[in-house]
Design a protein that fits this description.
- The chain has 2 domains: 158 residues, Rossmann fold, CATH 3.40.50; 124 residues, N-(1-d-carboxylethyl)-l-norvaline Dehydrogenase, domain 2, CATH 1.10.1040.10.
- The chain is built from 13 helices and 9 strands.
- Strands 3-2-1-4-5-6 form a 6-stranded parallel beta sheet, with helices on both faces.
- Helix 1 packs parallel to helix 6, helix 4 packs parallel to helix 5 and helix 8 packs across helix 11.
- The protein is elongated, with a radius of gyration of 20 Å.
- It starts with a strand and ends with a helix.
- The protein binds nicotinamide-adenine-dinucleotide.
Amino acid sequence: MAKIGFIGLGNMGLPMAGNLRKAGHEVTGFDVVPAARAAAEAAGIAMAASAGAAAAAADVVLTMLPNGKLVLDVYQEVLAAAPAGALLIDSSTIDVASARAAHERAGEKKFLSVDAPVSGGIGGAAAGTLTFMAGGTAEAFAAAEPVLSAMGKKIVHCGPAGAGQAAKICNNMILGISMIGVCEAFVLAEKIGLSAQALFDVASTSSGQCWSLTTYCPVPGPVPGSPANNAYKPGFAAALMLKDLQLSQDAARASGAKTALGEHAAEIYRRFVEEGGGGVDFSGIIEAIK
Ligand code: NAD
């Protein structure tokens, strides 16, 4: 079992650290927010006084932070403190350029590193059923896999440094676009006198079928477990969808890819968040489309 330093014990990090502990790893955590530290201590996680201190005796350092700038800031401390041979895993969702910079800095100090963002949300983090999309060398991935498997049930090696983040933002660009498409179809159906259930029955077994429709249906009724049946309580908040769409558009601009629908989806979610929808589930965008 490994000694793991876990930095960033928020909505996702805390349950993930808890699953590592349950799997028998020795976890030492750190978060800048006192309430997050207190919650982690209450969950039985030992607390360090800084990110560097959490990394100091670790075989593996995991980060679960809000953005790329914070990851690079924390890596400065971690790279100075972690013992030789430590493996660094960043599971935050961040921009591809920062992810590659983190790998580069880790490589300069001879640390193995993996970018391993997740899908599955706080439910998947608590249940230990996350999907991890990993980027890094074959050697780093092989070292990370047993650690990640304590927190997730599907772990995919997507390619070299940054490939995990690339997979995450491409997947979530599909998700944002497809959710808006499904919402528009339900809004149109209502206007032209077709019931939501009839549209669902046809489209869910026809060429309109997709995850946004069949698993996460944005109208109440057809899929009883979807957030639409629970007043659009997240789930996956619109603010996080906007973050991921904006990351996809940053990457599109930087690489010269043309993603007109991704750009439009980002704009639609930006307006929704600015008008107060940030904390609403991302399928709640149907109310704004109406
Ligand atoms: P969160 O805001 O709840 O947690 C982030 C934590 O990092 C906070 O507790 C914060 O205090 C801490 N932090 C910030 N700066 C720090 C620093 N310098 N040192 C130590 N700790 C620091 O966010 P979250 O929902 O847990 O998300 C974490 C990451 O996972 C994000 O990148 C997010 O995009 C991604 N993600 C979230 C979800 C979700 O459903 N919440 C799903 C998939 C991916």
